[in-house]
Amino acid sequence: MIDVEQIRKDFLVYTKQPELAYLDSAASSLKVKSAIDEVDYYYHNLGANVHRGAYQLAYETTNLYEEARKTVASFINADEEEVVFTRGTTSSLNTIANAYREILEPGDEIITSELEHHSSLIPWMITAKKTGANLVYIPLTEEGRITIEAFKKVFTKKTRVVALTHVSNVLGYLTPIKEITKIAHQSNAIVVLDAAQSAPHMKLDVKDLDVDFMAFSGHKMFGPSGIGVLYGKKHLFNYLEPFEYGGEMVDEVDKDQATWKENPFRFEAGTPIISGAIGLAAAIRYIESIGQEQMHNHTEALHQYTLKKLKEIPGLIIYNESAENPVITFNIKGIHPHDIATILDQYHVCVRAGHHCAQLVSKFLGVNSTLRASMHIYNNQKDCNVFIESIIAAKQFFEGF
Ligand SMILES: Cc1ncc(COP(=O)(O)O)c(C=O)c1O
Known about the structure:
2 domains; Aspartate Aminotransferase, domain 1; single chain; binds pyridoxal-5'-phosphate; 15% strand
């Protein structure tokens, strides 16, 4: 069992704002103290660059940075050289989509879905435009899910890339990616997984999932913003063209040509996000100290409790009752989501209103925008109750007019 009062001591924002009902973790989680302390340690005690200096300060910095890589690798069951630090999921996914602009040919097919966050969709849309490849959408079920059966319908011999979200940031649905990957590999298509929403909530094992590339962000899993991960299988990574060129990624430079190092350095041009990587490793250690199963049990109990209460409010449309992630996406008939969110803020309830950077999902639902409440380990039943009360108050306020 998770002791939320204890957990909250690790998230210092609660000492300043104890009344906070933070229900927007799908956008960005709160930041754990141990991760902030690591970032602070780097800036106060080290400050040197990595892989360059021949002095003690630089060695210690390099050690911490490379230890962080090991921590991430072990977290997702990858090998160290398969883990590249990036600015975040967006930057990781752009890196791969960009590299495939050198590889794809007219008529090749890229399978995607309407559930994608813009950062998983747009890079491939541009890749398709630039190469003459076709973007193919998996038909969603009525509920909005990706199924193996629907994937099989669009998978052909021309499929070269399958780029999908692991968990939808709007609907919280889990994609059956392991089974999809098995099928994709039958014709040597690569699978690029957007794990931005799954990494903060479930155990990810890249060897088990067998995906070729995977991306996630530190800021959604209690770590610093500005740091993310791009996992890639060794043999694929070393054959892709880098996205950026510069210091530390080169092997040999002549006047008219240069060669690149092998991964992970090949994709980490310039000074990396040293403090972010160290902070992310601390956040991962924190997650591991609590246990992902414990985290899941706690957030799922809150999720179900809140769903049950919300369903009792008349005029509420919930779009994703069966979501695997603790995310509730809804609307209130006749009231704009932004108006609701503004009232909720007066109760210190933080939720997201809008299209959540996934406009195709809104279009699929037939709405312009939705409200989204998402939970994590620092939430308790009181947060959920305040949330429900503030929804009722907002409804009364607008319906009174
Ligand atoms: C499913 C999904 N993919 C990608 C992203 C982009 O992540 P970032 O903004 O950290 O690059 C997000 C962020 O909301 C997301 O939820």
